[in-house]
Write a structure and sequence with these properties.
The chain contains 4 helices and 7 strands. It is α+β, with helices and mostly antiparallel strands. The protein has a single domain, classed as Gcn5-related N-acetyltransferase (GNAT) (Aminopeptidase, 3-Layer(aba) Sandwich), CATH 3.40.630.30. The chain has a 7-stranded mixed β-sheet, with helices on both faces. Helix 1 packs across helix 2. It is globular.
Length: about 160
């Protein structure tokens, strides 16, 4: 297993991972699949400003994690939102923990003060991962999203660096 900085040519593998969750879960609130070109543009935009890592297993990208802007207003400039996705068949093997640790360690080298993780509920695995790294639950928005014919709550976890 290798954790490294994202490259634009990782877009195809990242798109495949992400589109699975778009089509099969409420983990993301996107409802339409993303093209490889759109994902490449997102990678370029995000990684130019924030850490963005992938994890490879035998040369294949099987997960990714990144930080991005929390809110656009300038007073939020010391906060960032973190995101992590793994190939759906690889959960519970420690890969996510290693990847998330790398991201958080990199974030600690910046001038950021707070990391925020938004987690659609229920998602026990993501809650456990965030809490393992010291994130504390700070909010719950009830029925804030609607996907697959049902209302979905989103909880927010925060880590002060």
């Amino acid at each position: 297993m290798i954790i490294r900085q994202v490259e634009t040519n990782d877009a195809k593998a990242i798109t495949a991972i992400y589109n699975f969750y778009i089509k099969n879960s409420t983990i993301t609130f996107e409802e339409e699949s993303v093209s490889v070109e759109e994902m490449a543009a997102r990678i370029e935009s995000i990684s130019s400003l924030y850490p963005y890592f992938v994890v490879e297993d035998n040369g294949i990208v099987v997960g990714y994690a990144y930080a991005t802007q929390w809110k656009a207003r300038s007073a939020y400039r010391f906060s960032a939102e973190v995101t992590i996705y793994l190939h759906h068949e690889l959960k519970g093997k420690g890969i996510g923990s290693a990847l998330f640790r790398a991201l958080i360690d990199e974030m600690r080298k910046t001038d950021l003060h707070v990391l925020v993780g938004g987690i659609a509920q229920p998602n026990e695995a993501s809650v456990a991962l965030h809490e393992k790294f010291g994130f504390k639950k700070i909010a719950q928005f009830e029925e804030i999203g609607f996907k697959f014919g049902k209302w979905i709550d989103v909880g927010y976890w925060e880590l002060k660096l």
